[in-house]
Amino acid sequence: MNRKFVRSVRALYEAMLVLVVIASAALLIGALYYALKVGSRGGVRFDAAFNEVGGIKEGSSVLFKGMPVGAVGKMRYDAATDKILVRIEITKQVDVPANIKPYVEKSLMGQSNIALRTEQQTGMKELLADVVRRLQGGDKDGLYRVDGVELSRLDAIKPGLDAKGDAAIDDATKTMHRTAELAEQSNAALTKASQDLEKVAATLDQAGQAVIRSETTLNQAGQAIIRSESHIKKLGSASEKLGSASDNVNGFIQVLKVKPSALVWGLSDQQRTMMNQAPATRRPSATPVRK
């Protein structure tokens, strides 16, 4: 009975061993078939060039529109371009378009991955696999290369924030430049206005000096007029004195006409009275005066 039990256990073990071998062979064949199928139809490899690849390492996920499509292969530094070349390996059968751009996305938890985002494309639409195969031409060392971009954590959460931020920075820079230009123009205008004001001030100063000179001239003219009035008064007084002397001479001449000897013997009191009366009457006395 023990022999029968051993034989039955041995037969069961052999049957299970055969099933395990068959299952392993099937899995191996399936894996080979999948690998051949992916390699012939869906596998795409290319290099993405980045300035910085913080958080990316070999084996990091490659996403297309949020869907995992592959992984990151080897990474190396290219001294000629000062870039980090990251090997992108797309293993899933996804018709990724050729107009993609790799982005390094950083999550808030510190994990990073490569996101393939589509860009605007003009002309005929092509698949990435077709472009890569056509350009590589079977040369494994000369892989197709695409320039990538490192995104911030905020842009990874809300796509487009970095682009909007860059656009805002560009607008702010342009605004600052325009403001600087306007400030320079304002400074030039202020300088010109200041120069014009200085010219006006100089003109007003000259006008003020001319007014002062005019006042001085007027003062001098007034003083001359005052002096002229004084001279006129003096001339009037002299004229009066001259008239009085003239009257005296006329009176003396009248006396001489009456009595010529008065020039020798002098004048009597009556004759002096006649001379004194002569300026008023202008006529000599008709009565002969004798000394």
Written description of the protein model:
Residues 280-291 have low confidence and may be disordered. With 291 residues, this protein is an alpha/beta fold. It starts with a helix and ends in a 10-residue tail after the last helix. The protein is built from six helices and eight strands, in the order αββββββαββαααα. Strand 5 and strand 6 form a beta hairpin. Among the domains are: 42-159, no CATH class; 235-281, no CATH class.
Distance between the termini: 224 Å
Helices and strands, in N-to-C order? Answer: HEEEEEEHEEHHHH
Q: Low-confidence spans: pLDDT under 50, at least 5 residues?
A: 280-291
Question: Structural class, from helix and strand content?
Answer: alpha/beta
Query: In terms of quaternary structure, what is this?
Result: single chain
Average pLDDT figure: 77
What key attributes describe this structure?
disordered C terminus; 291 residues; alpha/beta; 6 helices; 58% helix
Can I get a quick summary?
The chain is an alpha/beta fold and 291 residues long. Among the domains are: 42-159, no CATH class; 235-281, no CATH class. Helices cover 58% and strands 17% of the residues.
Topology overview:
Elements: H1 2-42, E1 44-50, E2 61-64, E3 67-78, E4 83-90, E5 100-106, E6 112-118, H2 128-136, E7 145-147, E8 149-150, H3 153-157, H4 161-258, H5 262-265, H6 269-281
Parallel strand pairs: 1-7, 2-6, 5-8
Antiparallel strand pairs: 1-4, 2-3, 3-4, 5-6
